[in-house]
Amino acid sequence: MSWLTKVRNSLSNLKKRDTPDNLWIKCPSCKEMLFTKEYEENLSVCPRCDHHGRIGADARFSQLLDPGYAVLPSPKVAEDPLKFRDSKKYPERLKAARAANPHPDALTNATGTIDGHKVVLGVQDFAFMGGSMGMAVGEAFVAGAERAIKDRCAYVICTAAGGARMQEGILSLMQMPKTTVATRRLKAAGLPYIVVLTDPTTGGVTASYAMLGDIHIAEPGCLIGFAGQRVIQDTIREKLPEGFQRAEYLHAHGMVDMVVPRKDLKGTLASLLDFLQPAKAA
Q1: Please, what are the averages of pLDDT over each run of 10 residues along the chain (282 residues)?
Q2: Comparing C-alpha atoms, which of 212, 196, 194 is closest to residue 158?
Q3: What gap in Å lies between CA 20 and CA 22, rounded to an integer?
């Protein structure tokens, strides 16, 4: 046996050092490799290019709410009312989404405080079937608004959605007027309704509760729109301007009140609540 064979055999017998598979993460914008720990400590914002990554409901709750918040139970709705099937049955898609996510659907509410201001905070998670708006999302939104009315406090919603949930057809589209009525009830009660637009907020969500707030805040660079850019370009047969449907473009054209980096979001919400929150709810 040659010395090379001996060395090769000895190396093959060495145990591979155990290392986590998630030590690194690639920024989807600048493509830089980042330490996952560094990325998460920076609120899932790339320290190189300032790209704001998508985060789930639990991360959003911990970033915005003071310690001691409580996650509200998700409302029960009829599942698969249309017996929908494409390449998979709808219940199978729901089961897979629930196995990969901590909450039973795309919108979750929690009660707590933001720098001492009592709020109900709703968060849409794009990781759950693209944050799509189905009956469960509509019912959760209404439940969040009703809890805010009961507690006499603000309702803050962080939106992230690809639009309506096609597996629920017209029942999904009916959530648009349903949630719109809930925002009117908040207004009639004299309670603040603040929308935080995150990446992406599109489709029926944009056409309903995402653009009906008293204040609209957007995270930097997030996509906000109804139809996609390609659809719009093909319809009007014109090239769209640079940055079209991005937060900064909408802010410059008066559709968003402010663009706020994630690290400043909690402080901004607290300042707004200082102005908007009724004295009884403080």
Answers
A1: 58 53 89 94 96 97 98 95 93 97 97 97 97 98 98 98 94 97 97 98 96 98 91 87 93 97 98 82 43
A2: 196
A3: 5
**Local structure of residue 70 (DSSP, 8 states):** E
Q: Own/partner pairs for 245-252, CB < 8 Å, 24+ apart?
A: 246/221, 246/222, 247/197, 247/218, 247/219, 247/220, 247/221, 247/222, 248/220, 248/221, 250/218, 250/224, 251/218
The number of beta carbons lying within 10 Å of the beta carbon of residue 21 is: 5
Q: Is domain 52-281 in CATH 3.30.43.10, yes or no?
A: no
The pTM of the full predicted model, rounded to 2 decimals, is 0.89
What is the identity of the amino acid at 101?
A: N
- Beta-carbon contacts of residue 96 (< 8 Å; ≥ 6 apart): none
- Residue 268: helix, strand or coil by DSSP? helix
Domains of the chain: which residue ranges? Answer: 22-51, 52-281
Tokens for 161, please give them. 């959605």
**DSSP-derived 3-state class of residue 65:** coil
